[in-house]
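User: For my dataset I need records formatted as: sequence, then structure tokens, nothing else. Please produce one.
Assistant:
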Amino acid sequence: MKRTLCGAAVACGLAQSASATPREVQIRSIDFENSIVEIFSFSSETEDLTGWRLCTHDDDQVRQYTSPMAPRTISPGQSIYLYWNNDAPGGDPDRINIADLGGFFAGPLDRGPFSIGLYFPGHDGIVMFSDPFDMIDSIQWSIDGLDNNSADERSDEAELAGLWIDQSLWIATTPVSLSIMLTDATGGLLHGPKNYQVNEPVVCLADTNHDGMVTPADFTAWIAAFNADAPECDQNTDGQCTPADFTAWIANFNAGCG
């Protein structure tokens, strides 16, 4: 079933003369490690993506519009992956280089601030980016969830469209975040930071010299951290550097890092 949502009076008026907005096609994941955006269909119907467009923003690039998408559809439960680095594997029509979409993109696809809006041509085959009715989905993230006055150029439309809970709220990332995943698997429309999981690297406390291995050399590094009251000293994560952290380091060393 397609759902139509009117976030403002003007959008409702336009909705009466346009087809139902297929807002169960959503941005489901952001892969920072490989610079890939996943678009997933929660819809029970095959949706026509012909003419759909993206609008992206970051801290120094705003209103970057893609060209209209070439004729294609997305089936229920299907994903389409957009490769920001233009390194999509060949032979898979669901894995698309952004260069092949055409137009403009904010980049690189980093930990933020960054926002993406997905739009369909709700005005006789034309996308009106300023009209909340044409917006299909929106997502925004930034380091520590800080508000940003550059990357939020279409956040007000997302809020008016009933797609984002508050234009000043951002998914909180860190400089080393691995990915963002939508946790709402129902196809719900209104989202905010609490509807997403940010995946971070596994912290290996025993690797105190940060060489990617757990070896006896890390004991020497822990001693140095203890003497310097450095963050690596805190092996029991109690926020303090005390002799108890030595026992914790031994336990962490024996446990290793998977």
